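Try this one yourself first.
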């Protein structure tokens, strides 16, 4: 299966080489794959420079400079549009900064090959782990999963993980849908909109990088949760897959 990996990066010069070397190892072992690194003005260090140098050396890596991005959701969807235009059969989204381990990519591809349209990484099923999560991030993640399942009728064990994979048809639907999220709720919104798809949760190991979670992001999450809850209550709940 020919696949693309989407990785938004910002201020990751310290972990850049280690992370991209792990990606190279996976691409080598699978003899397939392409990586789109999306960088915007949030990044103030040498991440863009390092990424461009890598792209020059290794054509399996593309650097997408996107100064027009307004938030991380723009970064994800920009990467997905590039991958879709590239004709890839599957797209995997993941975080940089060693939060997600590239060695787990083959598990996502195997699950997609089992006739699943979506594969969602989960920290909270057997085999999954959330290593040393800062208290604030852990609370928001688990509370977000509980509230989303309660109010939106979803049934996933992890509604906020950023490690996920989609087949080409689903990618087309995501990049043409007017998403409401602007920050962390993006992962929850995607899972909600794809609740009727053929999906599978697989265990992942997540290493929390920091305790950062802005109140602006939290407010957007609350707004989106209320918005989709209201639509569900009035019988107008949207879905990307019938």
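Now uncover the answer:
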């Amino acid at each position: 299966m020919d696949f693309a990996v989407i990785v938004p990066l910002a201020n990751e010069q310290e972990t850049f080489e280690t992370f991209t070397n792990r990606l190279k190892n996976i691409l080598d072992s699978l003899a397939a794959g392409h990586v789109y690194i999306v960088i915007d003005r949030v990044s103030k260090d040498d991440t863009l420079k390092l990424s461009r140098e890598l792209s020059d050396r290794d054509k399996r890596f593309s650097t997408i400079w996107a100064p027009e991005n307004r938030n991380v959701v723009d970064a994800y969807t920009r990467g997905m549009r590039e991958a879709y235009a590239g004709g890839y059969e599957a797209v995997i989204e993941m975080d940089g900064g060693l939060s997600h381990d590239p060695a787990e990519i083959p598990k996502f591809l195997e699950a997609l090959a089992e006739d699943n349209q979506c594969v969602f990484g989960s920290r909270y099923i057997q085999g999954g782990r959330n290593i040393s999560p800062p208290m604030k991030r852990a609370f928001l993640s688990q509370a977000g999963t509980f509230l989303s399942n309660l109010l939106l009728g979803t049934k996933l064990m992890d509604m906020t993980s950023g490690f996920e994979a989609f087949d080409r048809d689903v990618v087309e639907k995501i990049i043409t849908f007017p998403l409401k999220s602007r920050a962390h709720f993006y992962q929850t919104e995607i899972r909600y909109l794809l609740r009727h798809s053929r999906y599978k949760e697989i265990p992942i190991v997540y290493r929390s990088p920091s305790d950062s979670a802005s109140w602006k992001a939290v407010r957007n999450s609350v707004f989106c949760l209320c918005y989709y809850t209201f639509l569900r209550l009035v019988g107008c709940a949207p879905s990307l897959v019938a």
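Discussion: The mean pLDDT is 94. The first strand starts at residue 3 and ends at 8.
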